[in-house]
Specification:
The protein has 2 domains: 364 residues, Rossmann fold; 181 residues, Helix Hairpins (Orthogonal Bundle), CATH 1.10.287. Helix content is 54%, strand content 13%.
């Protein structure tokens, strides 16, 4: 039947740790408080499936490095790695689960159809996804009714419109009929493509078969050439290489354990070493203190010597003064002219008014200076004596230090060196083993890439076979859109009756843009936002149900953000006043908890039908407040639950170590 997308794990590789959500086939529910990162999980999945951008919120911006999506496309497992800070960088695709990325080389793809001079030969990510899902890669007309209409490339992103509805679009009046007319037309053509009802689809399928057959021949030729090279170079089989990696990992673990044991013995058996080292440290401290004291002593001697010389100089000056006075004798009384008033000035009388030192005062100062000279001489002698004693003590300490170092060296040689030698030997072996492991992993990557050629050949064979079957069916009985719309209307009718809305009549689809109608009213004209939400979910579920029994170009995969929007379950209901009529919501009874519960029960029932038919499907549903009376019934489907207050130990959000 239809192709399938199965998300296994979403991983945000962070700076502190990795953040992950695991998913299962069937129904997956994510719920909890607002602003805890629930919607970002769906946005990240969408981004890793090729969306143009991802709006970072602060916690992810601070904690994340890049994101990876572990996904199964039909029967094949891939890990899609993408830079979340630069959407223009190539997307890396590994042909394995996330845990095995180390063993495989990645193939890189351009994220959009915009060609790059930097990567001129790189393929487009959309083409990879379509090919992996065995979907035809074709072009569709921009204006189907015109013969000269330009053709535009069909993108995987065109299909996502029918696989993912975000919280802004769910229940919106313009979800199925946007203002952009050309986008309306393109959506209608994509809708036809999903049901293999495009006029050009048979010829495109035949061309696709031809392209895939040619690609298969090229890969088979490459496989043969590589096989011969690996065999002649005795490269080693994938099984033997894998065994070697496992054995090397065990040897590395054993060596690390032995190194740890050596470090333990080195610590335990080295008490003598630690005692000698402690004594040596004490000697070093005492020696440093002594050297500093000796340096201070030298500075004191120098300072006191300068002071001593100054005192001697002053004494010499005073002696000269006394000697001059004795030679000159007493000065006779003089009369001088005052420089101010030109009057006579008695110098002897003036002397009485000024402090001019007599001879006995000079002698007193001279004696004081001599005492200071004697004191400084004593200080100089004491400082020199202390310096000599310190020098002797320092010599003793240096001898003690020398003996301690000899003992330490001897102890190191006898006790430590053997341990170090043994440890160095193990460390060297560890380095060699790590190098050997890196070489083995490199070889294993090459072998895995070679093995991947076989998988690609098988995948192309399956794809070609399915395409041929599809062409034959289309040739025998090409589907009419009237039949398609009738089946979808029946699916939608059953869904609305199960939900128990009021008056589930007049259910159909418009014949031009394929928009659902209820009671003869087109979706966008329904005034109740809650009723539009119910109808919109039913529309998407109708596609999923049709994919159970009809050959469709559609992956059985559906993500719905904020299921309870306009149903009285969203706290921010008042912010959607322009999109809904409160009176109409009340009239329709959309806040009835039973209707909300019935939506989940219908989706679970649809998932069970897939399981019974041995087909794969996946629903990922996000909401804020799941009613307590049904949470028990849904607990088995919950894959992530968050609480901004960490109630019951729940994580605060997708980034679970963000500060509260």
């Amino acid at each position: 039947m239809s192709s399938s997308i199965l998300i296994n794990q979403l991983i945000v590789v962070g700076t502190r740790k990795n953040y992950a959500v695991n998913f299962n086939a069937g129904v997956n529910i994510i719920y909890g408080d607002s602003a805890t990162g629930k919607s970002s999980i769906l946005d990240l999945i969408d981004y890793l499936l090729g969306a143009k951008k991802f709006d970072l919120y602060p916690e992810i911006h601070a904690a994340a490095r890049y994101a990876v999506l572990d996904v199964t496309l039909n029967e094949d497992r891939y890990s899609i790695k993408r830079d979340i800070f630069d959407a223009s960088r190539p997307i890396e695709v590994y042909p394995c689960a996330f845990a095995d990325i180390e063993k495989f080389a990645a193939k890189k793809y351009l994220p959009t159809f915009k060609t790059s001079t930097k990567y001129p030969d790189m393929e487009f990510f959309s083409e990879f996804l379509l090919s992996a899902l065995n979907l035809t890669n074709l072009k569709i007309k921009q204006a189907p009714t015109r013969d000269d209409s330009k053709l535009v490339r069909l993108s995987f992103r065109d299909l996502i419109h029918y696989c993912y509805v975000n919280q802004d679009d769910l229940g919106s009046k313009k979800y199925f009929k946007p203002d952009n007319f050309s986008l309306q037309v393109k959506n209608a053509e994509v809708f036809k493509y999903i049901f293999n009802a495009l006029d050009c689809q048979i010829s495109e399928l035949e061309q696709d078969i031809s392209d895939k057959s040619q690609r298969k021949s090229e890969i088979e030729k490459k496989f043969t050439l590589v096989s011969e090279f690996l065999r002649e170079s005795e490269f080693g089989s994938m099984l033997s290489l894998d065994d070697e990696v496992t054995k090397t990992d065990n040897d590395i673990a054993l060596l690390k354990e032995q190194i740890g044991q050596i470090n333990g013995r080195l610590t335990a058996d080295n008490e003598v070493y630690r005692a000698v080292k402690s004594s040596l440290d004490e000697i070093e401290l005492e020696k440093n203190a002594l050297q500093q004291r000796m340096l201070d002593g030298e500075r004191k001697v120098e300072r006191f010597t300068r002071l001593h010389n100054d005192y001697l100089s002053d004494i010499a000056k005073f002696n000269s003064s006394l000697e001059a006075r004795s030679i000159i004798g007493e000065i006779p009384e003089e009369i001088a002219m005052c420089p101010v008033c030109d009057g006579a000035l008695q110098l002897e009388s003036a002397k009485k008014n000024f402090d001019i030192a007599p001879s006995d005062k000079i002698k007193y100062e001279l004696n004081s200076l001599k005492r200071r000279v004697r004191d400084t001489e004593q200080l100089i002698n004491d400082s020199k004596s202390q310096w000599e004693r310190d020098k002797t003590t320092l010599k003793v300490l240096e001898e003690d230090e020398k003996r301690a170092r000899e003992l330490l060296d001897q102890n190191t040689k006898e006790l430590v060196s053997p341990y170090l030698a043994e440890r160095d030997m193990h460390v060297k072996q560890l380095g060699e083993l790590n190098q050997k492991r890196a070489e083995l992993v490199s070889r294993l990557k090459i072998r895995n890439q070679h093995s991947l050629l076989t998988e690609q050949i098988k995948s192309l064979e399956i794809s070609i076979r399915k395409l041929k079957e599809q062409v034959e069916k289309l040739k025998e009985n090409a589907p009419s859109m009237a039949d398609v719309l009738s089946n979808l209307a029946d699916n939608l009718q059953r869904y609305l009756s199960f939900i128990k809305i009021k008056d589930p009549t007049g259910v159909s689809y418009t014949s031009d843009k394929f928009v659902p109608m209820l009671r003869g009213i087109e979706y966008g004209s329904i005034r109740s936002g809650g009723l539009r939400t119910i109808v919109g979910i039913g529309y998407l579920c109708s596609l999923m149900e049709e994919a159970l029994t009809t050959q469709m170009s559609y992956p059985s995969f559906l993500m719905i953000d904020t299921v309870g929007k306009y149903l009285g379950k969203t706290k921010a209901q008042s912010s959607y006043q322009d999109e809904t009529s409160s009176d109409e919501d009340f009239k329709e009874g959309v806040s009835d908890p039973q209707k909300y519960q019935n939506i989940f029960e219908h989706i679970i029932s649809l998932s069970n039908k897939y399981e019974q038919n041995n087909q794969i499907c996946q629903f990922i549903l996000v909401d804020n407040d799941v009613p307590d009376h049904i949470i028990g019934e849904l607990s088995g489907f919950i894959v992530a639950q968050f609480s901004s207050e960490r109630v019951d130990g729940l994580p605060v959000g997708f980034i679970d170590d963000a500060p509260v």
